[in-house]
Amino acid sequence: MATEKQRDIDPFTAMESLRAALAEVGIVLPSLGVDVASPAFKLVELGRVRADVAARLADTLRDGGRE
Known about the structure:
mainly alpha
């Protein structure tokens, strides 16, 4: 269950933070954005990516972001 602090995070700030962190490891999610159709949920849309990008993202997460 999400804490109150987690629910108060601005989705645009969260999206930009994620974009920057991914860029540090050379990963770009072209469709990354905020779902403006559901503002109450504060959703970040990760979008679609090519299979090779998804595999690199999985490898990076498994490696703890180290390359």
